[in-house]
Queue: 3 jobs
Job 1
Amino acid sequence: CVIESEIQAWIDRKSVKKLVKSLLSEDEEEVKVVGLLSGFETRVSRTPC
């Protein structure tokens, strides 16, 4: 479970960086940003292993 947690933490960091970049960009479409945010919300609401 430790390795899975480390991998998921790495994926989460990459996801947050992408989300923040999209939120700060004036060129990003709102639909894309909402999709990224929704996906991340789903991920963090899951129960850890």
Note: DSSP finds two helices and no strands in the chain.
Job 2
Amino acid sequence: MLDAFTQSVIVQGVMLVIGVLIGYGVARVLKGILLVLVGILILLLLGITIAGLPGFSELFGLFGQAARSARTFLGVIMDHPPFALGLLIGFVMGLIR
């Protein structure tokens, strides 16, 4: 049997690794979304309309839902500092690569 300290170190190490992986993935997804948004912006500036794009009211509704989800996620991050550090490291790695 492992003592409580060793178990805590193992759990925190696993949370750090999971945070790095999630942060890396999120950074890659955000870079992809940014490229799509820039492409749509260029089309809109040229006057080309695309059927099926959401309206402003739908987008603002999504921002409200995202804010509520972010509050919950920030609560989890505040409770688990190794996970937060892993997210930060992974996010920076994903942005650089």
Note: The chain has one domain: 12-96.
Job 3
Amino acid sequence: MFQYIRFLLLISLFLWCFFLWGNIRWLFPYTGLAGLITPFVVLITAVISTALFFLLSGRLKNVVYTLLLFIVFFICQSYIVLSTYPQGYGGDVFSQMLSAKKAYDCYDSIQKDDFINLNRFKRVVYIYKFHDELPDENVLLSISKNGKSNYYLIEVYDNKMTYDKSKLGIIETDSTTIIEEYLTNGLVRSHIASEGCLRHHDGGSFKEQDFIISVSRDELSDNFDTGIEELLYDQLKSNLRKNDG
């Protein structure tokens, strides 16, 4: 009976690495080129940890000690796979998990006008919390000079742009888009961009005199790019967080 349990633990330890790896690939897909080596890291981890467990557990005759040894190897194995899994951006796996947890905890404090300052995990919470109030898309306008940037949020409802008119003015003509910044010192700073740039331009930037103007769009879809974002959204739904805005 003891040998049968030991055999099951050996198989479980070996297969766990690949099960964990499969789930990590879904949760954190952006590995970059370094992701090409992860199958070898997982295989080596699985083989070495299983071999060590086999050798050490062979000296034990007590089921309890064998189970404790299995737990130690299970934890170490999981840590190695998680800590060595590469990420192209967004920090390592553990920091992303922590960011997702912090975003979940910030549910009550996130307000509708906070969008500009949200990271991608708080964006998930934002989309869930304000699901019934979201515009068709958010347009983030950035105007920069000498490393200093001003950010403006433009909400689009039925092709109509809504924004803070105390800070921003937009005049659209057949040939140009005039963007006016209302500065805190009372001055108005005007920029001339191409026609429809705020409606159609997405990503990248263009230069206007000494300023860099960037436009990015967010359709606020709940079809997220990564598994951990989907998991966070599902966690919000399963815990019946209220969509009370």
Note: The chain has two domains: 2-89, 135-218.
